[in-house]
Design a protein that fits this description.
The protein is an alpha/beta fold. It contains 29 helices and 42 strands.
């Protein structure tokens, strides 16, 4: 945006004049900036300066170049295949193994696909009750991390490579010292883990060295919530939320649908409630009060933008509205009290079928009061259960210590040995702790991790850890079930599991990780163990715990004058642990659609006060931190709030993740006082919000119906000059339910993993050249300060009357007998005519050869069933035609009719909310045919007469939904 276009008053007036159903994409489109206009008017921007050759090769190779090490890897001898399995290894036939990917200590159950001994794809485990076959973007990208050449590959001593024999000798000497001191001086810092095997080993370590101290190092852990539950119920407990039963959901600065280790489970429950409500089985109301826009807020019936410091007042008012005798007066505006009244009315009307969720960053008083309110509503046993903690280190009265306590011990000179296990506290801890300087006082420092990161660089010893896909372990899923982490391939480097390293300290024995896991589960008979390996888990969900009645509490109100900052994990790279994965760096963040960087989020009013626009540099002052970053104006954000996101500003992430964005450390409270001012700098941001905009149409791209009358008017299909071609056999089609889509982007990453889609880098994304076959358009509706957010996934429409087919001069894009709009890559000469003819803007052109100069072994990670496209070739969504062909061939070999219900596209497979249905529209009994008969069904840009096979179901709203700033 140019300086002259920075006119917020004009934008507000412009939006006030729009009709109620009008949508807008972003501030650049409102301001009609030259940059935005260029992207709208030209499908392909003019040639931009090419990337520096060295940087380009680093980027392309970073997450794949060493994949060839897996090319000749053997299947682990003890691994047991899952159910979809051939009787013997056959070239070209995939094998599937059930395993799990730990994320923040919580197991994500998956099935891993291997070809010729190489893992190439992960999918959710359909047999596991938490997954149901779905998974999130982080889990999809774990396969890329396995092949990352920047993973640590050998042990190091003072930065230089060494051998495991040297490590064994050093640990033997330390063990002798610990035996004489009973472990005094040994301090172990652990990342989050729910591994029963690691728990058993740590207990053995504590029995041997009872003076040893243990610490948590997970930056976004649930420590405070567990402390509150111990205070309220007498024991630390995890809340298990059943959103499928919650007819009324109230979220207070909480985002259950957003990124996190429980996202898949919670999205599945939320979507099931929406489906039941659509069938007339109860309501699906949601009231969200939050400081920054989230996916849960985007799906809310009524959303309130409010500063975190007003959360105690909000809970106080809600308690009073629900019948509590509260003496204090909440300091809320009339508009905020109106939101409280509506939420309380809905809660009382649905009582036990309601649920209140609160941020784990909220004060202990607020969290405790919400626990009491849920109990009073009767939510326990209906929408909420309490379970024993899933993660290690939260036993009753024996919580592991915090990094603040470690800092005190370091300052006091009480630490002689420091072990940092699977964590990076020098990047994620608060700067006021001063860990970087204090670490130098410790005589023996050891780090074990996937990467030689910021913490490893400050330790004497660094030990490389196995990836979850090439080492044995176990972990508990969000429902408490125990999953077996089964390797898909032998270790690619000279690495060890955490279990082997602990055993090395205890005994000097170079033990087998599988043996350690099997010891933990020695009570399980061999036949049951084999079945557990095939299924992927070994125990059912943890039982619910009965809790006593919570007492009434006094809420302490918070006073923060002026601005306050909130620090949240980045939705794509989290706390920085995924910073070196190009798939996730290039994945548009769900609300802002930014890639390759973090930003400083400001509301339109705050940006107007500071005098900045998107991309302007700002300086933010926090207690103990001063940071510089790019401003990003986020409609719908609370006016007095500055949004900061972790995961960037790293120096030792790897060649992909180094030097991006700014560094900010997590804070332990819900918010802190802050200030912001313009720095006078200017940043170029890689944002996809203004890319690929649809042409104007009388009908809005996203249709909305009311719950009371969920029916769209009949669409008038324009007559066509072309004769319809109807062939016998399957006719493929897709229906996307916008009432279930949360905009989480899991489908985008799944498509990239399945179809060998290239990572192009920030510069190319900024030029409008991102290659994703499936994009999620984010629309705003309403005012500048309090708009509604809407999401719409757009793959190829596979039009029956496709304009691209008539436009191609060499017949490189053609129509198949089963209704697919196909690309013939070796015919394409790169005229790009097809893309200019496509009204949906879903075709992608290879401006560069993204695989140039890559070693042949780079193909080890890629899907061999999908062609790797060359420079000058157009590409697009194929409806995963390789999966269609594989299913057809399998049925033909078995001598059976083609069962079209077996075909599942990658995006459909991974979607946690099951918003995507795909199948044979010629089969009137198929799920996709039933969806096309739904009264909410419509076609995008139907007036053009393209007759798309990809269609939509309108979003359902419950009464008058609204957003308020």
């Amino acid at each position: 945006m140019s300086a002259s276009s920075l006119d917020f008053a004009v934008w507000r007036e412009q939006l006030a004049g729009l009709k109620g159903s009008a949508y807008w994409r972003g501030l650049e489109t409102l301001a009609a900036t030259p940059e935005a206009q260029a992207l709208i008017e030209a499908e392909f921007p003019g040639a931009a300066p090419l990337l520096d050759r060295r940087h380009f090769l680093q980027l392309m190779a970073a997450s794949l170049a060493m994949a060839g090490l897996a090319a000749c890897g053997k299947t682990p001898e003890q691994a047991v295949p899952a159910i979809r399995q051939a009787t013997q290894l056959t070239p070209g036939i995939a094998s599937w193994y059930a395993t799990a990917i730990p994320f923040c200590g919580i197991a994500q159950p998956v099935l891993g696909k291997t070809l010729a001994g190489r893992p190439i794809k992960l999918e959710g485990n359909p047999q596991h009750p938490m997954s149901g076959g779905a998974c999130d973007a982080f889990t999809q990208a774990a396969i890329l991390q396995l092949y990352d050449p920047d993973r640590s590959q050998t042990p190091r001593f003072k930065g230089r490579e060494t051998s495991w024999d040297q490590v064994r000798g050093a640990l033997a000497r330390q063990r002798l010292t610990l035996n004489t001191t009973r472990g005094k001086g040994l301090h172990i810092v652990c990342g989050a883990s729910s591994s029963p095997t690691l728990g058993r080993q740590i207990e053995a370590l504590r029995r041997r060295w009872p003076e040893a101290q243990l610490y948590h190092a997970e930056p976004f852990a649930e420590t405070q919530a567990l402390r509150v539950s111990e205070r309220v119920f007498g024991q630390p407990l995890n809340a298990r939320r059943y959103l499928e039963n919650a007819q009324v959901l109230v979220c207070l600065e909480d985002d259950p649908l957003g990124s996190g280790p429980r996202q898949t489970l919670l999205q599945r429950g939320w979507a099931e409630r929406r489906r039941q409500a659509a069938q007339g089985q109860g309501a699906a109301l949601s009231f969200v009060a939050e400081s920054i826009p989230t996916l849960t807020g985007a799906a809310a019936t009524r959303r309130l933008a409010i500063a975190p410091s007003r959360l105690p007042d909000l809970v106080l008012a809600l308690s009073r509205a629900l019948g509590d005798n509260v003496a204090d007066q909440p300091r809320l505006s009339a508009r905020q009290l109106d939101w409280v009244d509506d939420a309380a009315t809905a809660l009382k009307a649905h009582s036990s079928r309601s649920l209140i969720c609160v941020s784990k960053h909220a004060t202990e008083d607020v969290q405790a009061q919400v626990m009491r309110l849920n109990q009073r509503l009767g939510a326990h046993g209906q929408t909420l259960d309490w379970q024993a903690p899933t993660l290690l280190g939260y036993e009753r009265g024996q919580f592991w210590a915090s990094l603040e306590q470690l800092s005190q011990q370091l300052a006091g000179g009480n630490v002689s040995q420091l072990w940092l296990l699977d964590c990076n506290p020098l990047h994620t801890s608060a700067p006021e702790l001063g860990l970087e300087g204090l670490l130098q006082k410790v005589p023996f420092r050891l780090h074990a991790g996937l990467y030689y990161d910021e913490s490893a660089a400050h330790c004497h010893w660094h030990l490389p850890l196995n990836h979850a896909l090439d080492g044995w372990s176990d972990a508990r899923a969000a429902d408490g079930s125990a999953c077996i982490v089964q390797p898909l391939i032998k270790p690619m480097y000279s690495t060890r599991t955490l279990h082997q390293i602990i055993e090395l300290l205890l005994t000097s024995a170079d033990s087998d990780a599988l043996d350690q896991v099997r010891i933990t589960w020695s009570h399980v008979p061999h036949s049951q163990w084999r079945q557990a390996l095939a299924d992927g888990w070994i125990e059912t969900s943890a039982p619910a715990v009965e809790v006593p009645e919570a007492a009434t509490l006094v809420l302490n109100l918070i006073d923060i004058d002026g601005l306050e900052a909130v620090v949240r994990p980045d939705p794509c790279v989290w706390d920085g642990r995924f910073a070196n994965l190009g798939w996730l760096q290039e994945l548009p963040k769900p609300i802002s659609t930014l890639t390759w960087s973090n930003v400083v989020g400001l509301s339109p009013r705050l940006a107007e006060q500071v005098g900045v626009r998107n991309g302007d540099g700002v300086e933010v002052a926090l207690p103990g931190q001063l940071l510089r970053g790019a401003a990003w104006i986020e409609p719908g954000q609370a006016d007095q709030v500055i949004a900061l996101y972790t995961g960037y500003g790293r120096s030792r992430a790897g060649r992909v993740g180094n030097g991006l964005g700014y560094a900010v450390r997590p804070i332990q409270s819900s918010s802190v006082s802050a200030s912001v001012r313009s720095s006078g700098e200017r940043h170029t941001l890689a944002v996809t919000q203004t890319h690929h905009q649809l042409p104007d149409d009388e009908a809005p791209p996203i249709r909305v119906v009311q719950r009371e009358a969920p029916q769209l008017p009949a669409q008038q299909i324009p007559a066509s000059l072309y004769s319809p071609v109807v062939d016998s056999g399957p006719q493929w089609g897709m229906v996307i339910d916008l009432d279930l889509c949360t905009g989480c982007n899991a489908c985008v990453t799944a498509c990239q993993a399945e179809n060998n889609i290239a990572v192009v880098g920030a510069e190319q994304v900024a030029n409008g050249r991102n290659m994703h076959w499936l994009r999620i358009d984010h629309y705003y509706q309403g005012s500048l300060d309090a708009p509604r957010s809407r999401f719409q996934p757009l793959p190829c429409m596979h039009c029956e009357q496709a304009p691209c087919e008539t436009g191609c001069p060499v017949n490189a894009t053609v129509h198949s007998r089963d209704g697919l709009n196909q690309m013939v890559y070796n015919r394409c000469i790169g005229t790009r005519t097809c893309a200019s003819y496509c009204p949906y803007k879903v075709r992608r052109f290879n401006w560069l050869d993204w695989s140039a100069d890559a070693a042949p072994s780079i193909q080890a990670q890629r899907n061999p069933e999908v062609t790797v496209r060359a420079r000058g070739v157009m590409e697009k969504c194929t409806y995963c035609v390789q999966r269609i062909s594989a299913a057809r061939i399998e049925d033909k070999q078995q001598g059976t009719d083609f069962d079209t219900t077996k075909v599942v596209t990658a995006c459909q497979q991974t979607c946690p909310s099951q918003a995507i249905r795909f199948g044979d529209i010629a089969d009137f009994a198929s799920a996709v045919s039933h969806a096309r008969k739904d009264p909410r069904h419509y076609r995008l840009l139907e007036a053009l007469g393209t007759r798309p096979r990809t269609t939509y179901l309108a979003r359902i709203e419950e009464g008058e939904s609204s957003d308020e700033a």
